[in-house]
Amino acid sequence: MSHKIVSPPFLDEASLESLIRQLKTSGESSSPNSAAGGFQEPADSPFSFWEVDVNRVRFVDPYGMIGLLEIGRHLRRNDLFPQISLPWRREVLGYMQRMDFFKAASEIYQVAPPTPWPQERFSRHRRSDVLLEITTIKGNEDIHAIVEEVERRAESILRVNLNYDNRAIDHFVVALSEVCQNIPEHSQDMGFVSIQKYYYGRRLGKNIVKIAVMDLGIGIRESLTEKYGSSFGSNWDDFQAISLALFEGASRFSDPGRGHGLSEVRKLVQKWNGKISIRSGTVRLVLPPSWDSSAQHQTQLPPFRGTAYPYLPCP
Length: 315
What we know:
The chain has helices at residues 16-21, 62-77, 90-98, 101-105, 140-162, 166-187, 219-232, 238-248, 261-271, and strands at residues 2-6, 10-11, 49-53, 59-60, 81-85, 110-111, 130-137, 191-200, 206-215, 275-281, 283-287, 304-312. The chain is an alpha/beta fold and 315 residues long. Among the domains are: 1-23 and 45-123, 2-Layer Sandwich (Transcription Regulator spoIIAA), CATH 3.30.750.24; 219-309, no CATH class. A six-stranded antiparallel β-sheet has the order 7-8-9-12-10-11, with helices on both faces. A four-stranded parallel β-sheet has the order 1-3-5-6, with helices on one face.
């Protein structure tokens, strides 16, 4: 038997939740408006093949693409067979190709027939606004390679388009490496990262950088439970755990100096009037900038096994 998960036309941080809700955990049908589904361990499901349908996607950002990869990984690790149907729009297909989405997806999905994987190479323009294509994070050596690549492209994107000076570039790279470091150190999983520049004309009239990092690891609450859970008793939940990591520099490690990564990232992003959002468990904690009054915390979301960090620094 098979089941289909259908993507909305615009696939980003907010709309990815509609796909997570469609991850059914039993043979029963669940409403896309309910909190059913999610990245939790499934019950015995009668569905063997799961198709992720992105035919009608008209816009997708780095967070949306990484989310598609993690949905496929979630299905595969639970002995289900993920397939993906590709976008009809050539410009979307070309963008996903240039972002190396299909390179990563080919190790996770099969293409829903009769469409093959794209064979045409869409070249990356030398003035591209992509700071980092979709890149796998498994260990520290991956993070070193990511930092080197971002530093290499910093001159043409961060300095020219966002007016970063040397100090700002250094801070940006440190913040990026801190977030990526959480995957090999805390998640007990692999993950993905991608970075792109966007022009926020209506809200800001300036360029910003959008960073997306995601894993399917144990999540922030489970990472911190052994050390902090008993102190909070019944109040210990995903929101409390994320808050500790962001505001107190909490870490499962006892080594001096360990665990301040997210706290330092928060200080930097808030200093630059940027946005930081963390999705883990059933909670999304958002620290909104002055230019985004719509950003707010969300609770009772579909369970998400892992952690997602979309954030927008803009000095």
